[in-house]
Model the fold of this input.
Amino acid sequence: MSVLVLADHDNAAINQPTRSAIAAAGQLGDVHLLVIGPEAVAQAGAKIAGVAKVVHSPAEHIMAEPAAALIAGLADGYTHLLAPGSALGKNIMPRVAALLDVQPISDISGIVDADTFVRPIYAGNALATVQSSDPKKVLTVRAASFDPAAPEGGSAAVEPAQAAADPGVSTFVNAELVKSERPELTAARIVVSGGRAMGSAENFHILDGIADKLGAAVGASRAAVDAGYAPNDQQVGQTGKIVAPELYIAFGISGAIQHLAGMKDSKVIVAVNKDEEAPIFQVADYGLVGDVFKLIPEIEAELGK
Amino acid sequence: MKILVPVKRVVDYNVKVRVRPDGTGVETANVKMSMNPFDEIAVEEAVRLKEKGVATEIVAVSIGVPQAQEQIRTALAMGADRGILVETADAVEPIAVAKILKAIVDKEAPQIVILGKQAIDDDMNATGQMLAALLGWGQGTFANKVEVADGSASVTREVDGGQETVKLTLPAIVTTDLRLNEPRYASLPNIMKARKKPIETIKPGDLGVDTAPRLKVLKVEEPPKRQAGVKVASAAELVSKLRNEAKVIP
Done:
């Protein structure tokens, strides 16, 4: 049987969370990849290892209402419909599920069998194993839990999708996306994060030096985002991004459970905080107690040696 | 214009939940319960739209145990006008919640339903999108800005890498993200006033909704625990350990 994965992309490249979803989908059946976007992205999707077929629907912007209608229309040929648990997948897949009268299963971190999945609940403080009785499964995939499929190695055919009618209740106005040379937060090998102790938006940029030296993505705690020091899409935690890099360095982050939920699966965790009782030290492999404003330049200098 | 705001009773966000030893779920007895934080943001947004003269009435709905009245009262104290409690002792999945809400929308005919983007207990992030699908309405999820004028809503949404704005024909669904607003604390006089506001109680069956779960919870377990590591004394020692011991940097 075949399974369908919705591709998340920026109109140029398919992102790593999608490739993690493809890897997860590969455990469930032959993977067909749905690309809503430019032809070039569909061609890139055809090269991803493990993709048996690309279904392509041209569009300038992916809007939830027509996208969900399109996916629900394609659902007959598939046992499982998946998407990465990105902002895109979270926006669209529950809508698809409701159109199909299915209870979606969000953010799966494990696959037991075709009907049974593991997913974190309560900010990752518990793992629930759930078995679905729905005839079709609609899933979003926690990217950090599945090694991504290789971007090259496949040679799938690209077929056009039957266009679905746009319900005509929404229009795209504009997008303001931050252009960054840094790796994407959920795909980065190293993440450098700052918390409220960074003190201001200006001071937050002190982290850039270390991030640049390490080729790291920059993350933030919810407290830092709430205080306006960092943009929301840098937020790591229960209600932000879930990351599991090889190295996670937390500067001035106390380690609320909501933040730990977003990074505790990192391979190596470093915490730098002036409060030696901060809960972040309980999950850190390496802890350094001290003032971040003194230690950040020192670490940056050491990295340059 | 009427606005409907669903509010969920959840374990308070400050509580460290514990998995029950028998693996059937998490311990919720004698645990502090509160309104889901994203739902507070939803109530606040509705109240602001009323204060701006855009909305005329705010109806708060909760689905759950009789004590979920407390969360409705909180919404009423923040500025909602009346409440509806759909009383059930069963765990209700998002699909059933969406169907219950659809039945209420059919009756109440709001122009906007504002929901929290996700509940901090099941972390599903699904109900708003599902309700939008069942109603055939547009959805502005993960909103950080909502502007309502001339029969439509402009919703600015948090997306990966920044934000985007969509325009929705009313009626429409909005789900809230953190930066949309900062919810107010209810004042004592408003808490007193809220006691006199009406709450209607109904059952899912009255709305013709089957709440039988689609997902069977086979087990709930604690995630693997991380061990605390070592403290290092200096930046130099830290970088040296990362290079030579953990081997995660060049």
Summary: Residues 101 and 131 of chain B are 7 Å apart (CA to CA).
